[in-house]
Write a structure and sequence with these properties.
heterotrimer; A mainly beta; B mainly alpha; C alpha+beta; A: mainly beta; Immunoglobulin-like; 3 helices; 10% helix; extended; C: alpha+beta; 5-stranded mixed beta sheet; 12 strands; 35% helix; elongated
Chain lengths: 303, 427, 307
Amino acid sequence: MNSSRVLMMMSLAGLAAVLPAGCRRPLADSVSYSRSNVAVLRTALGGDKAATEATAAVVADPTGWGTLKGVIKMTGTPPPRKTLNIDKEQNVCMPGGKPVLAEDVVVDASGGIKDVVIYLEKVPADNPKWEHPDYAADKAGSVEFDQKACLFLTHVFALRATQTLDVRNSDPVGHNLNIAGGPRTGNFTVAAGSSQPWLFGGEAAEPFPVSCGIHPWMSAYGLVRSNPYFAVTNDKGQFELKNLPAGVPLKLRVWQERAKFIKEVTATGKIDKFSKGRLELKLDNDEQRQLELSAASTLFGGT
Amino acid sequence: MARWSLLLALPCLALLGLAPLAGCGSPAAAFVRYDTYARKVEKDTGDDKFRLRGSQLAEVDELLAALFGTPDEPLVPAVEGAEALNLTKLKLAAGPVGSAEDGSPRGLYREHCAHCHGITGDGNGPTATFLNPYPRDYRPGKFKFKSTPVGFKPTHDDLKKIVLEGIPGTAMPSFKLLPDLEVEALIQYVKYLSVRGETERGLLKLTTDLDLDADPNARLVSIAPANATAEQKQTQQDQLGAIKDEVAKVLQKWKDGDGAAVAIDPRGNMSEEDFIASRKRGRDLFYGTVANCIKCHGDSALGDGQLTDYDDWVGEFIGKGPDQQQLIKEFVAVGMPHPRNIRPRNLRQGIYRGGMRPIDIFWRIKNGIEGVPMPASTMKPAGEPNAKGLTPADIWDIVNYVQSLPFEAISNPLDAVPTVPEKAAVY
Amino acid sequence: MHEELRVGRFWSILFLMVPVVGVGIFVWAMAGLWPMERHWLPENINDHGAVIDNLFLFILVLTGVIFIATGIALFWFLWKYDAAQNTQPAAFTHGSHTLEVVWSIIPAATLVFIAIYQMNAWADAKMRRPTLPDGRPKPETAEITGRQFEWRIRYPHTTVMEDVLDEHGKQVLDENGKPRRKIVRDASGRPAYIYGDDDVYVANDLHLPVNEEVVLKIKSQDVLHSFFLPNLRVKQDVVPGMKQFVWFRANKTGAYDIVCAELCGWGHYKMRGRVTFVSREDFDRWLTKTYDEQNRAEFKPVTGEAE
């Protein structure tokens, strides 16, 4: 038989072989779950519309108050502080032309880490036994948050949900404050030499970043809590939490900007447990406990 | 014809006849996981090596499927505030493209939106790679062009305006020619995807709080078997309550958004002289230190004052620290579209993405734009003339100045070149 | 051999079916019977559109007649000279010079005829732009810019002011001593709009007055598109960098399609718009309403639940 017919047959056969390309074939599943689980969950969730009344787990009341003092240190060589890239308004933001260092990890000579936040988790709301009366005086006060030479003067600020953040600008140039997380986000200009109040009205589970859009190297972190038990370490790494509830297990979170929730520490002083940034301990009445927590510099990007 | 070639030809022709079936039986569309946010919460624990396990991610998927259904069959979760979502309209938008027996459409979202915004509303559909700017990712629940302040959701009318008018200067088209019912269905579906996305974020965050050291099999919801103890049943109720609270929180924010539109005092009738004076004041404010416009929009309002920043959809993952470049690589590997710097608007082009009406520009200046560095104005408190800040009249001055910028000679280089002046084309 | 006989004539009948079925479908579509309703030309509402339709039909009939004739001729040759019936061996001929000349000249003449015949239609659609009473070309009612994947429409809406002159040609002054100004108007009394900062911008939603000669300026912002109004028989490619004009006179109110007729990217299939023809008063009213909405300078939130 002749070659043109062979060619025709072969091309038809080839075409036919290509057809299965459109047939169903298993694609990588982007979600893989058990349909029966979904059905069970759907029934369980599809229950009453009202939020289930959680009979709160019965928590014992505190028996008194204790104080926790301590210092948070870094062992090993801390990471070197990077220089900020200041590319505008250098006359204001780089006074004297000197380079400005980043503040994400600041360690003093003895190893004390600055700007570590330590705060009490899971406090039952509206229970006077969990909040010392000393804290009532400042409950509706205001906390200053200033900026000068294009830097936030408080690198990590912490306040109560009932307090007002007094945002100030002591620079001759305008800034804006972009609050990118927490219970109330916002982004507003802060004119040169002005001050602006900001009320959060809620609490955050962990610190959130704030920044300036005009000067993007400006960065800080904030924490808002409903209870008054929070502290930010000073430049020697020291903190003090006065009048914590005593006689009950306490869970405190320890957070630093670079390491986030500090994974593990070596503790000098009596603690029950420390894991994944959560410090568990129990204070006795009128106890003044002293703690020293040391974290390895590798957690912060050091060696 | 020779018999054997017939024997070969006929089966081939038969197979050819099956060609129309190619493509049948393709798998149903499914929501994709929020991998970038999962990586973020993994990193936020502080442990760089920590990864959520497959079983945990599967549980999040199961919970979302139980609450919100699938792309073909949406559900409205049975929690407080669910009135914000309308299941009938969602059903018009969901599913494959087609029509139901009563002639009503199906699959509107897939027909009009999914190729850019993705089945999951992640702004990463097949077309998205070719677009600048990228389509919106609904899952963080942030929308740029609205009448409400930053931190609040857009109102229904805000979403409707964007769908009807489109966004000039971007690939978002105008859907004004669609019937009203279809537009409403699409808006509902966008809200639905946004609520689902925010719930997914909340659930992923809750998952990282599970103490796996104590109990490696810990789950967000441990379904109590039929013969469970009262304590187990209570635990299940508490866990389910926590999940429902996550959803209720998101729905409440949408409800709050609907009532948060910012009122605008009327500009009033202005004569030509009034406009000229207002523009002059607006120019002074534009260049001043209270509004700070030129710091980002540039000395010539060309949008060249601040070129290194990122928007929130990318910024929440890569931050602003010295490790930004490395984080970009890490998140792109997990599926984030390659980040582009967010540029301030070039005000001399006359293209206003959020709308060109005076009230639109007023809202942009007063409220700022959510998700990008454009801040809200500091308003002068009433009764304090010496405080720093802007008054509504000041903002109108800036609006008038901004609206005049595209018509300045310098904004139209060809017109600015001296030619023989033609009679103003009087027809 | 016996088998071949039947099969040979079978193939020529089969070939005949092609022109027969083709013409049959055409006629069926023209008649508009089920299932071919609305498969013929769409409704024409353009006074100048009849020229295009007539040209189309003329060419269709002409080519149709030639098509049928050549189809029949082909079939006849296949049938008559089928190998089974024809025992005479094929004879090679050098061809007929006369025949070659004839069948070159006749089609050439036909084509030249068509070329000249259509010149009127072409000029009408592409060259004879409507003019104003004083002879100047009529200005466009709207400028339409095609962009991926929509039609952005801009109506000139900026008024020009001129001095009010008294009967001696001197400026009239108002009570403050300033020259009195008035809006420049065209012959019909409407403001003579130019492009400026008061223009009205819409996307995809073109409104135009009916029963008037309307001119449109069409441009492209990025790639090739084609501005196609099926119901007005208007189609013109828009080329980036070129501005072009199309004109028509609609004689019926209603909403009709604007479609893109030049592949412009992934969204070409949905680059649709809508053109709505309304009376002149309604058009002016719509333009003013759209302008006012575009210039909205106050906002009161709607109290209560939206929905």
